[in-house]
Inverse folding.
């Protein structure tokens, strides 16, 4: 048998090294150290870095961090090569407090290593840690799951899904998946990724489907703005990062403008993602105040640009 080529040997070494790094990162103790929760309320809403709760959970510490058990809770989870201070977390966080001061916002920060496979490997560990934390908060009278809305971008969407699968104290009210990550995920099974089984309501916004993110409909309702693949103003970006990030920009805009993004129902996700969806009589609203009468795949169009507003309608139309 011929010896493997130098290129194949090098690739095998990279795979083995990545697996070793992932195994080193992924343990119950390291997951606790890895995962940090930053708490925000109206008093520290303008700060990038909130009040930190990390590996040791304590009821009084959470209350001292400004958490109000009577308020609804928004929990944000970032994706690959992001963190608490990035726009994917800061834009929605800031929008929530502009729209409503009576809200808890938590950012789950899990910055790992600059290797995507390591992040993918650790998704389950981070999701497990999140489920444990939510169970602790429920059991200590801090959190009601019917007031919990988890928003996960990219890999963060799958972290949210795993937490929804593993939580033992009840069922999460809502998970919003913002362009759930595609590379290295098996979308033929619901294990280890976001699915509509993970919460009472799972809504998904696809903005770089088939690129950095999954094209498959995975929620109760899936939105495909502009076909969900390449967003207006992002055609120049061959990496897909511009379109991938548009998902959290659209969500943030919808928090302050709940009627910004009306959509109509398509026959299926193929129609929605291939721009073959004629206007139908079945409409929905995409975003924070999601409204729909039928599950399925929905299409809508938005403006271009880099910073918005992206809505084709104005606030005066409400």
């Amino acid at each position: 048998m011929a010896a493997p080529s130098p290129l194949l040997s090098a690739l095998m070494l990279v795979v083995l090294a990545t697996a070793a790094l992932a195994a080193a990162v992924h343990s119950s103790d390291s997951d606790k150290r890895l995962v940090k929760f930053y708490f925000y309320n109206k008093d520290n809403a303008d700060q990038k870095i909130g009040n930190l709760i990390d590996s040791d959970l304590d009821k009084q510490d959470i209350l001292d961090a400004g958490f109000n058990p009577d308020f609804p809770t928004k929990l944000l989870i970032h994706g690959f090569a992001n963190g608490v201070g990035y726009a994917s977390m800061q834009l929605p966080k800031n929008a929530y407090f502009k729209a409503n001061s009576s809200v808890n916002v938590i950012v789950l920060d899990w910055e790992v290593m600059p290797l995507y496979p390591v992040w993918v490997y650790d998704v389950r560990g981070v999701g497990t840690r999140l489920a444990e934390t939510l169970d602790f908060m429920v059991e200590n009278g801090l959190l009601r799951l019917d007031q919990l809305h988890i928003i996960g971008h990219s890999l963060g969407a799958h972290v949210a899904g795993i937490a929804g699968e593993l939580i033992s104290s009840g069922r999460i009210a809502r998970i919003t998946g913002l362009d759930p990550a595609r590379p290295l995920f098996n979308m033929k099974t619901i294990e280890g990724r976001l699915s509509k089984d993970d919460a009472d309501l799972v809504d998904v916004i696809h903005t770089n489907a088939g690129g950095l993110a999954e094209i498959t409909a995975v929620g109760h309702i899936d939105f495909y703005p502009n076909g969900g693949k390449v967003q207006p103003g992002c055609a120049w970006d061959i990496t897909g990062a511009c379109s991938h990030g548009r998902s959290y920009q659209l969500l943030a805009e919808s928090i302050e403008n709940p009627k910004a993004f009306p959509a109509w129902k398509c026959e299926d996700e193929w129609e929605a993602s291939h721009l073959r969806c004629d206007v139908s009589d079945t409409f929905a609203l995409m975003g924070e105040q999601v409204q729909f009468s039928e599950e399925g795949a929905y299409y809508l169009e938005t403006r271009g640009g880099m910073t918005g507003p992206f809505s084709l309608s104005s606030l005066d139309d409400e």
Observations:
- The domain at 26-317 is CATH 3.40.50.1820 (Rossmann fold).
